[in-house]
Amino acid sequence: MSHKWKQVLLERKEADIVFLDCKKAFDRLPHDVIITGLSKAGIKGQLQVLIDDDLRGRSQRVVVDGRFSEESQVKSGVP
């Protein structure tokens, strides 16, 4: 995205940029609920795919005394 913004600036064009800080707003909602809600709010197309890809397929594990737990799929919250 930064490359595209640089091109717009070099060409002296205008650009609309939206930054979303969703960490605390959605930290307990299931990913499916977040994606469905964004879709109902009009977030569709490439932006919806980008957000969906960022949320899905995440996993976590912990280390205690040098031993790793099994990975667990993360199905809610925003990284």
UniProtKB/TrEMBL annotation:
Reverse transcriptase domain location: 1-79
Protein name: Reverse transcriptase domain-containing protein
InterPro entries (alphabetical): RT_dom
